[in-house]
Design brief:
about 25% strand; four-stranded antiparallel beta sheet; about 270 residues; globular
């Protein structure tokens, strides 16, 4: 479904009064194959290029080297087959829940009655029935994120690209949204690539978890998550779950220590 081959990316860091302009390597030779209907999480230390990789899959950021293909087609820009869900809700504050969910379909010229029918069905699926006419200012953070998720699903993409979508939520709401996403995934069976800093989230949701190194981001390891579907939080009590969580933490800890060591030696800005 998604093939990432030797993906590399750098950015130009602007000059300051104290330092000249410099190139910052963000991604280095990333190779990942993601199967259709697979749920893959990506974990790594801050600054390792997780979001850059997600944006490259979406076609929002170009690569310096390598390529990304979706269903055999080279990614050269955004596509209706790929939808992104961000941590920030990015809802239109003046528009109702119904209008926000239907907005992508409106942009594509779908007839009003058809797009509202689709939107209403998704509003029910994400648990917001009765809030169709509410404005974003009248919703909680978790409800806003449900609207964002419904909006992404409304255009019926083959691939959902999710960039820490629950990162700004309180712990209780975050756990509820994780369970909601598991339920929706069972219904929709989209291919999902999900960036997170949460160890529990990375394991609970995924079929496989990609561990990335400190900047420049490389694939350190890809872990199979051996729990069946449908999946519930019961897996959190499984000893295998505990072992996987410890392994991810040890990887993140080692990466962070390496990054701090390089900074202290003056090798990293």
């Amino acid at each position: 479904m998604i093939r990432i081959e030797n993906a590399s990316k750098s950015f130009q860091k602007a000059a300051t009064r104290k330092q000249p302009a410099a190139r910052v390597d963000v991604l280095d030779q990333i190779n990942i194959d993601i199967k259709e209907n697979e749920f893959v999480t990506i974990v790594g230390p801050s600054g390792c290029g997780k979001t850059t990789l997600l944006r490259a899959i979406a076609g929002l950021t170009g690569l310096d080297f390598g390529e990304i293909k979706v269903a055999g087609e080279l990614v050269t820009g955004p596509s209706p087959d790929r939808a992104m869900v961000f941590q920030t809700f990015a809802l239109m504050p003046w528009a109702s829940v119904l209008r926000n969910v239907a907005f992508g379909l409106e942009l594509r010229g779908v007839d009003k009655s058809e797009r509202e029918e689709i939107a209403r069905g998704l509003i029910v699926k994400v648990g917001l029935k009765g809030f169709e006419n509410s404005l974003p200012s009248e919703l909680s953070g978790g409800m806003k994120q449900r609207v964002g998720l419904a909006r992404a699903l409304a255009v019926n993409p083959k691939i959902l690209l999710m960039d820490e979508p629950f990162g700004g939520l309180d712990e209780q709401t975050k756990r509820l949204m994780q369970e909601e996403l598991l339920r929706l995934w069972e219904l929709e069976r989209k291919t999902v690539v999900f960036v997170t800093h949460s160890l529990d989230e990375a394991i609970l949701l995924a079929d496989r978890c990609v561990l990335m190194s400190a900047r420049p981001g490389r694939v350190s390891e890809i872990l199979d998550i051996p729990f069946g579907r449908p999946r519930t939080r019961d897996v959190e009590r499984d000893l295998t779950y505990v072992d996987i969580k410890q392994k991810i933490w040890e990887h993140l800890r080692a990466s962070q220590i390496e990054e701090l060591t390089l900074q202290s030696e003056g090798n990293v800005d």
